[in-house]
Amino acid sequence: MRKLLIIGMCLASVGMLHAQTGLDKTATQIASEMMPGWNLGNTMEAAVTWGDNPAGLYNNNGGLASETAWQGTKTTQEIIDYVKSCGFKAVRIPCSWVWGHISNAQDYTIDATWMARVKQVVDYCIKDGLYVILNDHYDGGWLERNINATGSAKTKNEEVLRAIWTQIANEFKDYDEHLVFAGLNEPNVENEATVTQLVSYEQIFIDAVRDTGGNNAKRLLVVQGPSTDTEKTCNWMANKMPTDPVGNKLAIEIHFYYPWNFWGMEEDESWGSMFFYWGVGNHVSGSKHNATYGEESDIINLANRLKTTFVDKGIPVINGEYGVIWRTNISGTNESQEKHNASIKAYYKTMNIVCMERGIVPFAWDTNSTGNNQMTIINRSTKSIYNNYMMEGIKEAIEELKPTSIQYIKKEVLPCNKNTYNLSGQRVTTSSRGLHIQNGKKYIKQIPLHR
Fold first, then answer.
1. CA distance 449 to 436
2. CATH number of the domain that 179 lies in?
3. Domain range for 416
4. Which of 375, 400, 425 is the last residue before a domain boundary?
5. pTM for the full model?
6. Based on the domain organization, do 376 and 434 belong to the same domain?
7. Which of 140, 120, 138 is nearest to 76 (CA)?
8. Cα(276)–Cα(289) distance, rounded to whole angstroms?
9. Splitting the chain (451 residues) into consecutive groups of 10 residues, what average pLDDT does each group show?
């Protein structure tokens, strides 16, 4: 009996030596725990005015009122609780800093009251065990519109980027792996020559965060592809990623608003019509509003490119925004509101399944606006589902991707050359007893008794 006890203690000690703290998780492991994600859209990135550079920048005119400038509901713990109850595992918080939240323009000091409010919203999510992506969003376009700046303008951009990310990183340096930083949002890059300058800005972001130390030394960081466009990102950034002193802690972000005719087009044009109907079985005979491109096979092909270009190389992809406008007023000959509703559900389900199966983390965009032609899933003021078709599509994807079987291994040693984890995502040895995960499959490992 004593011999068995000693053996058990030794095995436990080995398991502890190999167990991972959260900050030791790779980018791939963290990404696998973030799916699916939801955007707190039109909220912390909003502005009290539409003033862009220079009038709307480097001042403190936004204040806390900007949180409800584009939608009317202040974020609360109860709202985030509801988001979690819907099955989301992560919240992306688009955020402005330079656009109305700078208290000292000389050194680009972020307003302390605004920083505290952003921190409070982050804490709502962390309290619920959710992952958080905090970014520098459009932010008045100070950088995203000026990636190709030269001379003194470029020098100022570099100073501002370093200053704001140093402040943000210092504020959150003690947070664990559940907080993720994303340097930008949708950097406007329309040619391959500008990618080098984009990467140089992203390098400043990475270096600024890492230099603050603490948990930021190992935090997952997200960089953005050119215009967050899938094809441009695959074509131009496959071999141009910024460097990071920490291995396996970078992800790349794209946005998946596609096809345009379906997700954003609001009136028919001479060159093409709006798409009301999308996906297998949802076309309407005789309608000019059936999708003619951008359906399931196209999304699968684009996702496969992202997988082979980045995911398979240990760089997970963050689909930071996707969504479709739900049109509530479809009528007329050869038109069908029912088929449109089914198309919305099919799109959200397809997007989540295709992404999550390939290591791409999907974040639904949610505007919290009701009425006609909206991209809203959750009504935050009532803490209820506003668009059942979107939510049902996401929930069906979650359900379909749940593990359905556990393989039982009896008196066999799992291959030592495979990474083995427990249900908490901690690295364990293949000799430890219990429930293990290898390559996404669950195993019950039984250790033969020593006689």
1. 19
2. 3.20.20.80
3. 1-24+407-451
4. 400
5. 0.86
6. no
7. 120
8. 5
9. 40 38 90 98 89 75 95 98 98 97 97 98 98 97 96 98 98 98 98 97 98 97 98 97 96 97 94 96 97 97 98 98 95 96 98 98 97 94 98 97 56 51 57 55 44 32
